[in-house]
Amino acid sequence: MDLIEAIQGRRSIRKYKPDPVPEEVLRKVMEAVRWAPSWANTQCWEVIVAKDPKVKSELAGSLSKGNPAFSSITEAPIVLVLCGRRGISGYYKGEAKTEKGDWLTFDAGLAMQNLCLVAHALGLGTVIVGNFNHQKVAEILGVPQNDEVVVLTPLGYPAAEGSTPKRKDTSEFVFSDHYGNKV
Ligand SMILES: Cc1cc2nc3c(=O)[nH]c(=O)nc-3n(C[C@H](O)[C@H](O)[C@H](O)COP(=O)(O)O)c2cc1C
Hints:
single chain, alpha+beta, three-stranded antiparallel sheet, two-stranded antiparallel sheet, 6 helices, globular, binds flavin mononucleotide
């Protein structure tokens, strides 16, 4: 699949078939994370692959009330939980290099986008889920204190296509030479 086609065609998928994802396909999705760029190649990400129905159901229970992704967490055969080690991305010899501090969530975002695009190219669906109780998920999965749970996504074969939310026109966010100058 052409990259531009993949970027424009990927949608958030919230309905899944129960069909399992073959291990070699899952490995390709993990390779996409592996090759993501990161601060000084620090690769602070970690991925927990949840397949146990009990674990998935506990994860679903951590979602904020009314989250439209709720049923997809138990429906999909896999839930991937993206975490990151604190104090690595954006740091040199233990000191933050910029006023932004930890770049963990930025790097995790890059890894997640790679993951979603490759999953899409392989015919799989994903929906990035960020609106949940992060502390609760850390407890469910036994994530250590020095690591942060960032986002999660169901992974599986789509049972229905996602709708395409409207995007801003580029003229609304691309400026010329100075903030606010229309191109
Ligand atoms: C950081 C982040 C958090 C998100 N959290 C949720 C969520 O909690 N529940 C949900 O259903 N979708 C969530 N989404 C998916 C967005 O709603 C979706 O990407 C957006 O509406 C654009 O639709 P598209 O992905 O189909 O292009 C999240 C997306 C991002 C990037």
